[in-house]
Design brief:
about 325 residues, alpha/beta, Spore Coat Polysaccharide Biosynthesis Protein SpsA, Chain A, seven-stranded mixed beta sheet, 7 strands, disordered C terminus, binds uridine-5'-diphosphate, binds magnesium ion, glycosyltransferase activity, transmembrane, transferase
């Protein structure tokens, strides 16, 4: 019988992975059975169109800990991951890719670290990316550098979506009002005590990548706009620069006019165009500022999280008498 509250849930988003599935089941099961703790595997079938759904249900017959969630249509890696996280029941929840690029053996190390050091988040950090293409390595390094600037240095570099979350961290995610958080940025932002386990990223076990360039660009755009309103302010800066240049050119034009080095009618026309251009950009920037405020209000993320509050737990009697005697 499967325990009602497993100690560990492993969430696996799966999209058209029929060739990987047998390898995944064999390897993951070996690791999880050896842990000696009750677990569940939450396989999220992201609207696969190949034999994946049937293969999952077949695997489930021999592996009662395998739970299969099927999304109605292909929704993408992040939404599939989120669906699994929101429905996982374990005290700890690990998310892992189906293609065995993240070695399942690392799960044991993550769990041990979290339990020993009482951590809420353990990131799987890629020790080396030599199995990735040079292009992927370069785009990833630009991405992580940019994200650390925008979100903060607590975003671990080269930590993808292979990570462990405690129940408390999953509940914090669940309470976020956002519908489509970029998990690898929002999770560090939650501010829980965290650790890292390094691993060697392996080659895809079978099949081909489901992350074409267009999806990588979409993820990068999502990542930037979900944490920064800076692009909206570009117009403000351009407008201000325009005003400064305009001031300079006004001086130049007046000098040229006084020297008689202008065509009649040119200074007024020229200055009007410059001035209007700058004013328009400034107004656009101003609109951007308000849109930015609306955007953060709509995101409705909490401004802070409290880690501890001594009032929330009953104070020890000795402390009470001390406070009493002071008053
Ligand atoms: N995936 C998914 N839905 C998608 C695309 C991918 O659930 O629309 C899954 C996929 O099955 C795999 C994981 O997300 O388990 C990572 O995808 P992939 O390995 O293709 O990405 P890469 O490692 O090449 O970046
Ligand atoms: Mg992969």
């Amino acid at each position: 019988m499967v325990a009602s509250e497993p100690a560990l849930s492993v969430v696996v988003p799966i999209y058209n992975e029929q060739s990987v599935l047998p390898l995944l089941v064999a390897r993951l099961r070996g690791v999880l059975d050896a842990l000696g703790e009750p677990y569940e595997v939450v396989a999220v079938d992201d609207g696969s169109t190949d034999n994946t759904p049937a293969a999952l249900l077949a695997a489930r017959r021999e592996w009662p800990q395998l739970r299969v969630i099927r999304l109605r249509r292909n929704s993408g890696h992040q939404p599939a991951l989120l669906a699994g996280l929101m429905r996982a029941r374990g005290d700890y929840v690990v998310s892992i890719d189906a293609d065995l690029q993240d070695p399942p053996e690392t799960i044991a190390a993550m769990l041990r670290l979290a339990q020993d050091q009482n951590l809420d988040i353990v990131y799987g950090v890629r020790a080396d990316r030599s199995t990735d293409t040079a292009f992927k390595r370069w785009t990833a390094s630009v991405y992580y550098r940019l994200m650390r600037r925008i979100v903060g240095n607590h975003v671990p570099a080269h930590a993808g979506d292979f990570r462990l979350l405690s129940r408390a961290a999953v509940e914090a995610l669940r309470e976020l009002p956002e519908r489509t958080p970029v998990l690898r940025l929002v999770v560090p932002w939650l501010g829980f005590p965290s650790g890292e386990v390094t691993f060697e990223r392996e080659k895809r076990a079978a099949g081909h990548t489901k992350y074409p360039l267009s999806r990588m660009v979409a993820l990068a755009a999502d990542s930037i706009t979900s944490f920064s309103a800076a692009p909206l302010r570009v117009a403000t800066w351009l407008g201000l620069a325009g005003v400064a240049v305009c001031g300079l050119l006004v001086a130049v034009t007046i000098v040229a006019y006084l020297l008689g080095a202008t065509v009649s009618g040119w200074p007024s026309l020229y200055l009007a165009i410059l001035f209007l251009g700058a004013v328009q950009l400034l107004c656009l920037g101003l609109l951007g500022e308000y849109v930015a405020r609306i955007y953060t209000a709509v995101q409705a993320r909490p401004a802070y999280y409290i880690a501890d509050d001594t009032r929330a737990t009953a104070p020890a009697p000795a402390q009470v008498s001390m406070v009493d005697s002071l008053e």
